[in-house]
Amino acid sequence: MKTQLMLFLAAFIMIFAGLNYYIGIRGWQAFGRLIPAGYGVVYWIVFSFLAFSYLIGRFAAQFMPDSLSAGLTVVGSYWLAAMNFFVLALILVDLLRLADRWLHFLPHGLKQFPAVTGLVVVVAVLGIVLYGSWNARNPQLTSYDLTIDKQAGSLQSLHMVVVSDIHLGNIVHNGRLMAMINRVNSLDPDIVLLPGDIIDENIGPFVEQKMSESFLKLKSRYGVYAVFGNHEYIGGHAEEACHYLSEAGVTVLRDDCLKVAGSFYIAGRDYSSRERFGGSGRKELSAVMAGVDRSFPVILLDHQPSHLEEARLQGVDLQLSGHTHRGQLFPFNLITKRIFETDWGYLRKGDFQIVVSSGFGTWGPPIRIGNHPEIVDITIHFTGEGK
């Protein structure tokens, strides 16, 4: 396993360095003539700092002050997004240049002044990054009106708010958490559900910014329930995260199932690959739901929208998931769309329904292009006509 990890990291660093060199050399070809003689080294030092700031901030954090590590990570996060769009833009430019060798359609003046093309690319990427940053900080409200064909005790309907993938940390800080909580409270929900990736790996900012106290201000009639995603485990602080969230009034379900208000069940599955981070594998869903009276509605929280047939066969009525971010940055939405049966939105398969959220926060680049962050507002009507 260690050898595989080392090979993966080596391949990743080589590809990462190669892509950045591609951007750097194209930038030099565009603007090199404008840089005074002897100052080329300054260009490469500044560029290398941008290119590797995220990796240095993340993987050398133990050797530097927290504030420096956090600063490098934030700068590098923006560069990751810019890198993505620089690569796409430069590939397009190079394809146009290649086609021009045969078709000769590019103006001669444009070819004589590569700095013009370079400036257009830089301005375009800067515009995309600025828009994506604004977009990532302005979540939309996505509403669903669903029906479950079962009785739910005395309840005729249930109003739930779902917030996945908050990724609380240095980027999604306590100020944004409070804005989210205020918006959720304004919806006056019966129940609040958090389907994983609440904390973004490092629990330090959560503790230092006293985010537990913020969670205590989250209001609902039947409580706040959560499951863990991959990021609670990646940071190695899952047990601490569980402690602090529980202290803040959040019920963390780790392969557990609870009956709420004598009317419906909330089942919560732990992260599907938690054993990769030193723990044991999660329970089978049949074990999680052992003893559940399936004549009552069953709502499942599972971070990843995978293996949907298992939930359907176990009699789950509604599954709530996140994880995908709907790709977060174009063109990664094309990948998530291929990986998951549904990477965002609503899907129904017989009596089984699933809602996948694009999430509230971001991972890595604090930017979204091709999708929106969201808070999900769901009203479920219990028809009482079920079995």
From TrEMBL:
InterPro entries documented for this protein: Calcineurin-like_PHP (IPR004843), Metallo-depent_PP-like (IPR029052), Metallophosphoesterase_sf (IPR051158)
Residue ranges occupied by any Calcineurin-like phosphoesterase domain in the UniProt entry: 160-326
One Pfam assignment: Metallophos
UniProt EC number: 3.1.-.-
EC top class named in words: hydrolase
Gene Ontology molecular-function annotations: hydrolase activity
Keywords, sorted A to Z: Hydrolase, Membrane, Transmembrane, Transmembrane helix
Domain of life: Bacteria
Bilayer-crossing regions: 6-25, 37-56, 68-93, 113-134
PANTHER family: TRANSMEMBRANE PROTEIN WITH METALLOPHOSPHOESTERASE DOMAIN, TRANSMEMBRANE PROTEIN WITH METALLOPHOSPHOESTERASE DOMAIN-RELATED
Protein name as catalogued: Putative metallophosphoesterase
Source organism: Pelotomaculum schinkii
Highest classification ranks of the organism: Bacteria, Bacillati, Bacillota, Clostridia, Eubacteriales
